[in-house]
Hints:
elongated, alpha+beta, two-stranded antiparallel sheet, 25% helix
Amino acid sequence: MFAEFFYNAQGADYNVDPEFARLDAAGLQRLRLKSSVYLHAADCAYTPTQWQLNQLPQACHHTLQVIFDGIDTAVAAPAPEAFVHLQRDNLQLSAGDEVLLFGAGDAGEPTAQDWAEAAETINYEIVTRLGARVPRVYLNAPQPEFAS
Length: 148
């Protein structure tokens, strides 16, 4: 069962805005029953985040797992000993290895334009699509300063 949200009588989703009328005791019971009937009957369930798990009744936590986007990161996690072997260059790369993606092309390394042509796009897209997880190191050039 997918337990994305639990309707609580206090806090996260109800009774947080004084402008709206409060439910009586019977209304609060109906609100909690919206999710709890299914949740208590489930043999196992998952929820996408730890915050969502914390919204669910403690009595059901033994049947719940946090599985983000359907991926159980306790099972499908990066292996520290993992590597990739590039046969053409007989090169083995592991996490933490430094890799030159592109450069000026003076030493035979690919340029952003080379990658763009291979990907049928423009070089600007190659340079700007690198995410924050890829650290930038500028060789033979002053390090740029970025505003935070």
